[in-house]
Amino acid sequence: MRPALRVLAPGFHTTVQDLGRTGYQDIGVPVSGALDADSLRLANALVGNPPAMAALEILLSGPTFEVAADAVRVALAGPGASLKVGREQAAVVAGGQSLMLPRGEIFQVLVNQQSACCYLAVEGGIAVPLVLGSASTYVRAALGGFEGRPLRRDDTVPLAIESPSERVEWGLPKPLDVAGGDLPIRIVLGPQREYFAEDATAALLGEEFRISQSADRMGMRLDGPRLHHRGGWDIVSDAIVTGAVQVPGSGQVIVLLADHQTTGGYPKIATVISADLPVVGRRRPGDALRFAAVTVEEAEKISREAERSFARLVAALEPVSDGGAIDLLSLYADNLISGVVSGVD
How confident is the model at residue 108 (pLDDT cuts 50, 70, 90)? Predict the structure, then answer.
């Protein structure tokens, strides 16, 4: 039987994602990929996978799995996320460290209010076929991932290897807060800024917005001040990039995310810088958003520093201490009942 994770409960929206399907937007295929690429790459680093290997993206509420392999090594990354391992006497293991789980073990991903998403990586990766060079799921076209859709109860997610390597478990030296807090999201103004009245730019940079319930992997509509157009709001459709801040005739801001359409006919007042895309991807409906403008040169500098910071983070991973993750394989190998007595005189 092929090694797998059996889905006991799928969570709200759990899909296979990697770093995206690049090179096909000219034929109308979105990039897709992880909303929070930093957490995906960190989860992969913890289990020893290449950064771009596919993992499970978990949105808003977590799935429950049963291990259907000799053993698996997993790691969870994402602000505040943790694993609940076991049935009755369950243990909760913080994210940010790898963990070995034996055949038949039950574990659940716990997602708290810090973040909209987290990532579960498995050593060796998830054995789904690549479509146009990527394992990412684009649900609207049933493309890629696990049958082109979110996981369902009783699915078996195929794994690439039967047993993980023999090595120590790795983790972060201290809990990591990568949610972005209340810091403003940095944007570069344009490319169609001239379509907007001056007070629109002032409102975008000076007012608070809130993520509405109309938010998904394609984009998030923001509640807040209406941004006024200078004249009309129809333009000749042109290319859209991830992070584009689009404003249709309603004046409501829409931030376009991983599954965005490849072209659009509404003007774009700004674009979220690449370094802040993971921060936006972690935000939940109801969260507040503020924006701050930077130049292209500043955005490039911020991006380079973000990559250096991530490299330092991966280099700082260390063996998990004895007080860290539970060694369940060793625990189950021991005779835990030989010393039990009746307690009767």
Answer: very high
